[in-house]
Amino acid sequence: MAKLFTHRLRVRYSECDQQGVVFNGHYLFYYDVALTELWREVVGDYASTVDGGDDLVVAEARIRYRLGARFDELLDIEMPITRLGTTSMIVRPVFKVGERLIAEGEVRHVFVDPATHSKKEMPAPVRAALQPYTSAG
After folding, report:
1. What is the pTM of this model?
2. Is the separation of the CB atoms in 127 and 84 below 8 Å?
């Protein structure tokens, strides 16, 4: 069974819209925060990855909204990695408050050379670090 990384954050008042729920655009920001923390825990400092000649860009993202998270709620972002390809990876984030499913999605990242922005193979050390968190989706 694959390991599951989860990042928790508290919804801030300024992130809520006039309906009193988190504005939809914030979920990709929350995802990015969770990915940064996953990377920090599993791979290491992201700046070191870039300094080493590897970068990661979003190629595709989709979010399906179920319910709205509200001010001051604790939002858990589960980060299952469902695919490690040759040059890309797919994460299917799940956003929850307690047992309430708030949103879910899929984000495909592509590895690139930071100098040229051309696609490149996923580095072997990154693959090895992420492999335990990978499951078939």
Report:
1. 0.93
2. yes
- Token couple for 90: 């797919």
Q: Mean pLDDT over all residues of the chain?
A: 96
Q: How far is CA 22 from the centre of its chain?
A: 18
Compute the CA torsion angle 27, 64, 6, 50 (nearest 10 deg): -60
* Distance from C-alpha of 60 to C-alpha of 89, rounded to nearest angstrom: 11
Which H or E element spans position 110?
strand 100-112
Q: What is the pLDDT of residue 136?
A: 62
In angstroms, the CA 69 to CA 65 distance is 10
Residues of the chain with pLDDT under 50: none
- Which pair of structure tokens corresponds to residue 111? 């590895």
Give me the sign of the Cα torsion angle 21, 25, 26, 27.
Answer: positive
**Secondary structure (DSSP) of 112-133:** E-TTT--B-PPPHHHHHHHGGG
DSSP structure string for 44-72: --HHHHHHTT-EEEEEEEEEEE-S--BTT
- Secondary structure letter of residue 122 according to DSSP: P
